[in-house]
Amino acid sequence: QVQLVESGGGLVQPGGSLRLSCAASGFTFSNYAMRWFRQAPGKERELVAVILQTGTLTNYADSVKGRFTIFRDNDKNTVYLQMNSLKPEDTAVYYCNGGSGSRYWGQGTQVTVSS
Which residues lie closer than 8 Å to 22 by C-beta, 6 or more apart? Predict the structure, then answer.
């Protein structure tokens, strides 16, 4: 049974930091690229960051470049999203995605950036 379980969301002030984690099980994690998406209220889900299997290649949405970092630990079957210099517009539910055909999704973790 494939599972992606996100954690690490919460309430943070503008300019603050959070680190999201996504623990994967039920598939060979190291064989697949992994992605973080987010969805804000009333908006479509958008791709935030992607990391290839070995972690050597990453890509980011323009809105988060220079502030967010995606990385992975294949020994722990976990992908992370380090978010720095957070802005109110980063408020969203964050989802990890991956696996065969990129068809597996986590349940999401809420990130709220507010003073």
Answer: 4, 5, 6, 7, 34, 36, 78, 79, 80, 81, 96, 106
Q: How far apart are CA 10 and CA 34, in angstroms?
A: 22
Give the separation between CA 75 and CA 51, rounded to whole angstroms: 15
Residues in CB range of 28: below 8 A, 6 or more apart? none
Q: Provide the H-helix boundaries in the chain.
A: none
Q: Which of 2, 25, 9, 31 is nearest to 95 (CA)?
A: 9
Nearest to 40 by CA among 87, 94, 4: 94
pLDDT tens for the chain, residues 1 to 115: 999 999 999 999 999 999 999 999 999 999 999 999 999 999 999 999 999 999 889 999 999 999 999 999 999 999 999 999 999 999 999 999 998 888 999 999 999 999 9
